Amino acid sequence: xxxxxxxxxxxxxxxxxxxxxxxxxxxxxxxxxxxxxxxxxxxxxxxxxxxxxxxxxxxxxxxxxxxxxxxxxxxxxxxxxxxxxxxxxxxxxxxxxxxxxxxxxxxxxxxxxxxxxxxxxxxxxxxxxxxxxxxxxxxxxxxxxxxxxxxxxxxxxxxxxxxxxxxxxxxxxxxxxxxxxx
Length: 182
Known about the structure:
Blueprint: H1 10-16, H2 18-22, H3 29-45, H4 52-56, H5 58-73, H6 76-83, H7 93-117, H8 124-127, H9 131-150, H10 157-163, H11 168-181
């Protein structure tokens, strides 16, 4: 639900916000599997964070996952992937999509380590529970990616997804086929 700062509050997830999170039509088996694969990648990258306490802190992985979503949805084709992850399950596209996310995480962690070395998030336990602090950090990380794209150091997400076999047309067609079969 795009609230990584409240993921530690399990009573909200399984009580107050249960219907809001799990009773949506877009919560499908494909989405759950896709998110589990993304979280596995996030967890593998935690060891690259130079501040070990920050890396082990429970909300860190949710902030990184939310940052990946924000990066993906900043791109038209990435947004379609997030809306209908079923398109990544066809023709071995998933490995290619996971490589893209792996590369994004590598870049994010480099920028995150820089932010941490500058004293950002010195009180990370409080900061990661703060909506404003998390949104500010995610915006900084997104801005770093956008700078890399502008300088030609990184391809756009659409270019990478197109190389995976995901195009605007395939995303629309496969999403509409999913609706017809439902």
